[in-house]
Design brief:
heterodimer; A: alpha/beta; Rossmann fold; 2 domains; 5 strands; globular; B: alpha+beta
Amino acid sequence: MVPDSRAVKKTSGKRKLAVWKFASCDGCQLSLLDCEDELLALAGEMEIAYFMEASSHQVEGPYDLSLVEGSITTARDKRRIQQVRAQSRVLVTIGACATAGGIQALRNFSDVEEFTSVVYAHPEYIATLKTSTPVSAHVAVDFELQGCPINKHQLLEVISAFLHRRPPQVPAHSVCVECKIRGNVCVWVADGIPCMGPVTHAGCGALCPGYSRGCYGCYGPKENTNTASLCHWWKKELGADQATIVENLRNYNAAAPVFARESRRQERPDGEK
Amino acid sequence: MQDYVLQARDLDILIQVVRAEGFEVMGPVLRDNAIVYDAISTAADLPQGWTDEQEKGTYRVKRRNDGAYFGYAVGPHSWKKFLQLPHRQVWKARSNNSGIQVAEIVDEAPQLAFLGVRSCEMHAIAIQDRVFVDGEYQNDSYTRRRSNIFMVSVNCTSAAASCFCTSMDTGPRVTLPCDLEMTEVIEGETHYFLVGSESYRGARVLQQLPVVPSTQEHEAKAERAVQNAVRQMEKGPRNFDSTDLKELLYRNYESPSWDRVAERCLSCANCTMACPTCFCSTVEDTTDLSGTYAERWERWDSCFTADFTYITGGAVRPDTRTRYRQWMTHKLATWHDQFGSSGCVGCGRCITWCPVGIDLTEEVRKIRELEKINREGP
């Protein structure tokens, strides 16, 4: 691990951007490619030095900014993320996989060997870890951009903030704040729909509640979550059953500590106690 | 003051006259299973024959058995969204060889008519006026918008279970100045509005309406209708004595009840967003990729977020206990010292729109009870 990212040599000329992939669906990298109107501006400000999703052209490190997508699921990943960190001045993780372990972290609640024995004809070919873990469990991370997938405007904001040495405007408050700013009617209060909004990190612009659906937490936990109180009300007042509660906590951010802890608690026979 | 009778079937004429006077009319509309405030163009846009049922953390619209136009309490929206915009650009700046040019964004302040403003909401607007117009730190956007409002108030004739304006001395009868004041009366086949005007602009509109002078009977019926709302609240679950709230909360800064409420509170900020007087905002400064262009935006913020009190070294209020205590103590106690009134108008929005049904009036009661037990023993 690099104790201080400033130890990585500064590059001369345009700052170098690298985009790395670990266990993931590539959707967050696609969010970068999806910045169609801004891509030329980005290429003007930074040298896109390593971005295999976009180009096979590779420039050697060190890199000024590394965007890391995906979670750590193999022994090879564990070694590779150390190498990425060692050649990155600033390392930003993007997406639910990199920040919380992703949907593949459902394995953390089960037995991977049992899965591989059922799914694969030759499970001995599968070399995988028992858990899927976020990048921050392995190396120092300078900033985590949550979301499944991330919001491209927030990604541009993070890159702009990096380029101009200012804090990114990525508020860690609830989706509820976004709902209220949009003028959405609360689906929880007005329709009795279980909604993860009050414990979920803003960033999507309250997309689902905007279409009268409950939030299902794809942006992961907000700061200062109270999942126990949320689940208590879902059960007692909204009539949600245990399966609904656990399924909502175990989505793309299943292994985010506050969600994981609560889903395990909800699964215990004595429920909330 | 309320001198004229407008038949309910002529309500649309009022709306059209106000529009012809140059105002875009905002009023209650039924949308997404709630009565919200939005643009209306005819009386048919109003949620006629609808009402709401409200309790802690729950809101449902349902059909009334009459054709009342204003037969419901306040909903999820408040008028603050038209005055203190949830999100607005403050300035933009560009840098070039000759330096940095900053351009203030002077947003358009439309001529709006608010139709159906309740007494508690009039008080809420007056409170925000004291903050944004009369206060030390004037908000130009709010001030410009506020000066362009034509206000049509409506006296409440029924109250939701979440209402407690009688306890806060803010309603249900309108007592603050507006342009037109209306009371809806519906008894059998009779359906009219008692209408009065308090302003030159209001009188101009009133002159153009097919109204007749009211009789004592008209006025007595209107009074009975308003008294119905008073009775509902006085017998209702949230009736309480608010006279000593400031002293009570000042004495109970370390009450164990703050720990208890923190166990339930989600710190989601819904209460502050729904509150018609909560006025806090933040500014967000951003640049584009080139760094030659920057913007500042103002956005609603809340004392329930960590960023709200973030200074060097961390958030001043890192946990839910301190955040809830700050909100409630400010709203009911320190507001008096800061702005000369309570910050609460008894509209009940924070109770209804709290996802886990935290009830401000109940929290006051708990603090009072715990203090008593502490003093006298159980």
